[in-house]
Design a protein that fits this description.
Blueprint (H helix, E strand, L loop, with lengths): L1 E5 L4 H12 L4 E5 L9 H6 L7 E4 L2 E4 L1 H11 L10 H29 L6 H20 L15 H10 L13 H10 L3 H6 L3 H16 L2
Parallel strand pairs: 1-2
Antiparallel strand pairs: 1-3, 3-4
Helix pairs in contact: 1-3, 1-6, 4-5, 4-6
The protein binds glutathione.
């Protein structure tokens, strides 16, 4: 059976978790406590960079969330979340990569601010600017007459961007000025996979000390 190493607050893990649920795959969830589990020798054999998510499929292990999504799509193609049209593939990949490349560095700065870790004002301003540029990019790529980025087809663009955008308000950035993003996110949040993987307010509160410890060294 598939084994999935994750933590409830990890956005990188959540995109894999949503995919496992959306593909109706059976898996064993292995909950990691990020205040030390990721540095244990056994885990470092799975991912020497001490990050979750990690997926194990019998004797095969894979880390890096987008590589895991590629693996799941190729190995378990039904239902498929990758379009076949060239322009649609490019759009999905761009949205995925904007999400994983642009949002995390800015999120780290804003999270530090939320957790009262000292950060220079200039860095906060730049991080906010990056966030708003990314959310505006998503807004510009949504059509209010469609449910998803690629018309009515639910794809990895929705899974990857949607699980990340859901956390942006926690960083002090309102989604209200983005009506298309807000409507799209509200649709996604109706899905069982979103409901099952949404962190509770208690999870968020409990994770703050762990996050603070991780971010203080970055
Ligand atoms: N590029 C990686 C990033 C993974 C990542 O940064 N995971 C975080 C949790 S969101 C983690 O495991 N942090 C603990 C650590 O680095 O020690 C991916 O997409 O899987």
């Amino acid at each position: 059976m598939l084994q999935f190493h994750y933590s409830r607050l990890s956005i990188n893990a959540r995109r894999v978790w949503v995919t496992l649920l959306e593909k109706n795959l059976e898996f064993e969830p292995i909950l990691m406590k990020l205040n030390g589990d990721q540095f244990k020798a056994e885990f470092l054999k799975l991912n020497p960079f001490h990050h979750i998510p990690v997926l194990i499929d019998d004797d095969f292990k894979v880390f890096e969330s987008l590589a895991i999504l590629d693996y799941l799509e190729a190995k378990y193609p039904t239902p498929s979340f990758m379009p076949t049209d060239a322009k649609d593939i490019a759009k999905v990949r761009t949205i995925e990569l904007v999400t994983v490349n642009e949002l995390p560095p800015a999120s780290i700065i804003l999270m530090k601010d939320v957790l009262d870790i000292p950060v220079e004002d200039k860095k906060i301003e730049t991080a906010k600017q990056t966030m708003t540029t990314a959310v505006q990019y998503f807004e510009d790529n949504l059509d209010p007459s469609n449910s998803y980025f690629i018309g009515e087809q639910f794809t990895y663009a929705d899974i990857v961007a949607g699980t990340a955008v859901a956390s942006i308000p926690l960083l002090g950035i309102s989604l209200e000025p983005y009506p298309k993003v807000s409507k799209w996110l509200a649709n996604l949040q109706q899905r069982d996979s979103w409901k099952q993987t949404a962190p509770s307010p208690e999870d968020i509160e409990k994770s703050k000390a762990v996050m603070k410890a991780i971010l203080q060294n970055r």
